[in-house]
Specification:
Layout: E1 2-11, E2 31-34, E3 46-50, H1 53-60, E4 73-79, E5 89-97, E6 103-113, E7 127-133, E8 141-152
Parallel strand pairs: 6-8
Antiparallel strand pairs: 1-8, 2-7, 3-4, 4-7, 5-6
């Protein structure tokens, strides 16, 4: 198996300058993955920061799990959208607080099956849910970057 880096894309406003590009010197924010029923959410590619129980319920149609405390935590939801087969894996790789402390940079990843990979023939909806400590209520911007990989199973 060989992994190929498909690309790193910054999903943010076009007005960004070079100083706003993903920078691994920004302080990392600890996060923890958790599972929940996402219902019909994420049928399209979705990346969102949820900062309240009300936002969570509006997106997923039910309350957040008891393990999520919106008084102290936020949730990042990433869905790769509906895919034609199995073999996809969505994840949040990294969350960073930028230098000014008023924006977050969230890096997501989608691992996709490539040539020669044996996959299930069913529609899938790969997604990731993570919770992180609420860093500041004065957050101005949340930027998302994608670092996607395709696995080549032909070798």
């Amino acid at each position: 198996m060989k992994a190929t880096l498909i690309g790193l894309a910054l999903l943010a406003p076009l007005s960004m300058g070079a100083a706003d590009l993903p920078n691994r010197t920004y302080p990392m924010v600890a996060f923890e993955e958790f599972s929940d029923d996402i219902g019909d959410a994420g049928r399209e590619e979705t990346r969102v920061l949820l900062t309240s129980a009300r936002e969570y319920a509006a997106l997923f149609g039910h309350e957040a799990p008891k393990s999520v405390d919106f008084g102290r935590e936020w949730v990042v939801f990433y869905s790769a959208g509906i895919k034609p087969t199995g073999g996809y894996d969505a994840s949040v790789l990294d969350i960073r607080l930028t230098e000014n402390g008023r924006s977050l940079l969230v890096t997501t990843s989608l691992v996709s099956p490539g040539p020669g990979c044996i996959v299930t023939l069913a529609l899938t909806k790969p997604y990731a849910l993570v919770k992180l400590e609420a860093t500041t209520r004065d957050l101005n911007v949340v930027r998302f970057a994608a670092c996607d990989v395709e696995i080549d199973c032909s070798r």
